[in-house]
Each structure stands twice: as structure tokens, then as C-alpha cells.
Task: inverse folding
């Protein structure tokens, strides 16, 4: 579904991605782990078109989207739940979800809204509440639900567990698995919580200083001694 080939991305003169190659096949959950500043979020933003890749190619279902406008990438079935949630704090939960549905067929709105509330019952209870008054966990639920309202075939998730309590993290990961299994949505997951991410993932990549340093199945990376030492706190 998604192919990233030899991608170099810069911020001014600083090279953030240094020839990244990644593949996400249809129906998979693929995770990207790495330390802070490794370039993980930059890769997701580059896939979405901001910043642009200076070299290399990004293909979605075989079509080159490297230079495609962001709105066109969304229309082709890509949605992102960004790091830090970035909901609209002054809008209600319902208004945030309506914003997420802008590129979806209007006839599907009620069905998609019902599904979002089914996945996240708390959002139904809070639908008339302003986004900025929600808890951190509720805001993360809203960010994911807003992305799903666009009816994506590929969902990009950037640090969905960041700053959340363990029980909320568990719920978020359960929903990600449910979205993939029941909605048949392909998921590319960037996470610092390597243990949960690799347990969930079909395959994973490890990024170090803007390069892919390692790849394998989720099970293989969980068992790898170097990964365990660097990212799993001595095996969790």
C-alpha cells in the first residue's frame, strides 16, 4: 500500500531523513520505533507532504505522491492522527469530528459518527463539550476518531500513547487493533512505547538518526537483544 524509497528530508540545511526505505502492505499494522529526535515524526509528516522529500519517492498503491498536495493525499485515503493530538480546542467534540469528515462522502457521515462513538463511548458522552476541556486520554481518542471520519484506507498514528495513563494506553492500543481487524484499515504506527507497539505490529522498523537501522516482524524485534536493551527497559 505504502512504499517509501530512498527518502531524504531536510529542515533548511539539516538533513532529518537520510535515505529512508519503508514498506507498509495492505492490511498490516507496521510500527516505527526509535529515540526522541530520530526522525520518526518527520517521516510521517513527509508522507503527508509537509515537509516535502527533497530526494526519493513515496508511493501510495503504486502512485507517486511525493509532490502531491496534502489535500489530495487525504482524498486518496490517508489520514493522520498527529503527535500532540492537535484537536481544535474551541470546537466541540462533534464539530471536531465534522471537520474530520470534510473529505468523506456526506451520505456516510451518520454511519461513521456512530462507529466513532462505538469505538470511543466517552466521546459520545462528551460530544457537546469543547475539545480543550477534555482529558489527555479523551483528546487522543478524539484525534484518532477525527482521522477515522475521513474513511481512510491508511491511518498514520504519531505517538498515540504519549503522556497517557497505563489504563488509557491499553484502551488506545485495543482500539487500534480493532480498527485494523474490523475496519480493514492499514495502520502505520510511530511509537516510543516499543513494547506495546511491537506486540501489536505485524512488522516493525527501528530508526536511528534519520536512518532505518533494523527491521523485522514484531515478534523478532521484541526478541532482539539490542532492541530490548535500547527500547524495552531491559526486556520490560
Result:
Amino acid at each position: 500500500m505504502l512504499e517509501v524509497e530512498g527518502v531524504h528530508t531536510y529542515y533548511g540545511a539539516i538533513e532529518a531523513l537520510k535515505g529512508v526505505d519503508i514498506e507498509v502492505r495492505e492490511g498490516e499494522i507496521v510500527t516505527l520505533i526509535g529515540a526522541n529526535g530520530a526522525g520518526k515524526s518527520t517521516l510521517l509528516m513527509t508522507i503527508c507532504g509537509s515537509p516535502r522529500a527533497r530526494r526519493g519517492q513515496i508511493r501510495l498503491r503504486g502512485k507517486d505522491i511525493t509532490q502531491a498536495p496534502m489535500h489530495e493525499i487525504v482524498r486518496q485515503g490517508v489520514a493522520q492522527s498527529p503527535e500532540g493530538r492537535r484537536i481544535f480546542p474551541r470546537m466541540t467534540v462533534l464539530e471536531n469530528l465534522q471537520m474530520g469528515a470534510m473529505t468523506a462522502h456526506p451520505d456516510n457521515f451518520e454511519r461513521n459518527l456512530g462507529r466513532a462513538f462505538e469505538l470511543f463511548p466517552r466521546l459520545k458522552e462528551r460530544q457537546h463539550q469543547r475539545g480543550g476541556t477534555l482529558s489527555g486520554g479523551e483528546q487522543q481518542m478524539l484525534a484518532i476518531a477525527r482521522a477515522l471520519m475521513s474513511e481512510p484506507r491508511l491511518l498514520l498514528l504519531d505517538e498515540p500513547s504519549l503522556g497517557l495513563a497505563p489504563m488509557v494506553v491499553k484502551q488506545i492500543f485495543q482500539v487500534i487493533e480493532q480498527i485494523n481487524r474490523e475496519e480493514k484499515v492499514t495502520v502505520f504506527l510511530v511509537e516510543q512505547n516499543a513494547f506495546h507497539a511491537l506486540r501489536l505490529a505485524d512488522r516493525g522498523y527501528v530508526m536511528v538518526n534519520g536512518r532505518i537501522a533494523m527491521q523485522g516482524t514484531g515478534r523478532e524485534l521484541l526478541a532482539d537483544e539490542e532492541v530490548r536493551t535500547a527500547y524495552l527497559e531491559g526486556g520490560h
In short: Residues 85-151 form one domain. The beta strands are 2-11, 14-24, 29-34, 53-60, 63-64, 78-81, 154-158, 186-190, 203-208, 211-217. The longest strand covers residues 14-24.
